[in-house]
Amino acid sequence: MNQKQGVLLVLATAVISGFSIFLNTFSVGSIEPSVFTFLKNLVVAVFLASILLLTKETKALKQLSRKQWSQLAAIGLVGGSVPFLLFFNGLAMTSAAMGAFIHKTLFIYVSVFAFFLLKEKLNKKIFAAAFLLLVGNLLLLQVRTFSFGMGELLILVATLFWAFENVLSKHALNELSGNVVAFGRMFFGSLFILVYLAFTDKLPVLASLSGSAVLWTLFTSVLLLLFVITYYNGLKWVKVSTAASILLLGSPITTLLSFAFGDASVAAPQVVGILLILAGVALAVFFVEFFPKPVMLSRPHSRNGS
Known about the structure:
By secondary structure, the chain is mostly helical. The chain has one domain (3-290). The protein contains 15 helices and no strands. It has helices at 3-27, 33-54, 58-62, 66-80, 82-91, 96-104, 106-118, 124-140, 150-172, 178-199, 204-207, 211-235, 240-246, 250-261, 268-290. The longest helix has 25 residues, at 3-27.
C-alpha cells in the first residue's frame, strides 16, 4: 500500500462516518449512550478478532511486547472509552451545534500534537486549510452563539483525548498493522467502559435492551467496524494531521443525507460551509500531504545545537 491508497482509505472513512452519524440519530435515542458505546466497541472487537484469526494476524498479537500491549491499552483508554463518556456528559449540558463544532476542531489539536510528538512538519498551507475548515464548520453547523461552560469544557477535553489518541495510534502503526491497532482500541475501550458501567450501576441496562435496540447496535457496529478498519489502515500511510482533516468531510455528508432522507433543510450559508470544507480538505490533501512546501515552523533547538 502507498500514500495515495492511504488517503483513499481515509476518504472512505469520512464517507462511512457521514452515514454512521446520520443513522445513529435514529438509534442512540433509545439506548443509554455509554451502554450503546460499550456494546458497539465489544461487537467490533469480536469482529476484529475474527478478522485477525482469518488473516492469520493472531500470530502478530502473540508476538507483541509488553510495551506494545501497553500502547494498545493506552489507545483504548484515551480513544475508545474516556472521551466518549466525557463527550456524552458534556453534550447533555450544551447545544448539539456547539458540541459538534468543538469536536470538529479535532484536526487542530492533532496537528499540534503531531508537530511536537511525531515531528510532522507544518507549513503555511495547513493554516489556510485550517481557516477554511473552521469557517466552513461554523456555517454548516449554524453556530450562532458561543458559550463556554462545564458542558463545553467536557467536550473540549474529550476532543483533546481523541487528538492524542490519533497521535498514539500513528506512532503504534510504525510497528503494528492497522487491524491490530484497531482491535486494541476497541477491545481495551470496551473493557474500560465496562468498568465504568459497573461503578455507575448501569450493567442492568444491558439485560433490559429490546430486540430492536440489539439489531440497531449490530447494524451500527458494522459501520463502526468499517470505520476503524479503513481509518487505521489508511492512517498508517498518511500524516495524522491530514487524516484528521479528511474526516471533516463526514459533516457535509451527514447534512446532505438529513436533507435528502430527513426533514432537514439546507440554508445558503450551509452550502457555503460545505464548499469551504471541501476546499479545506483539498488543501490538506493535495498541498500538505502530496506537495508540501518548505517548513514554516520548526521546533526550538538548544544553544549547543542539540
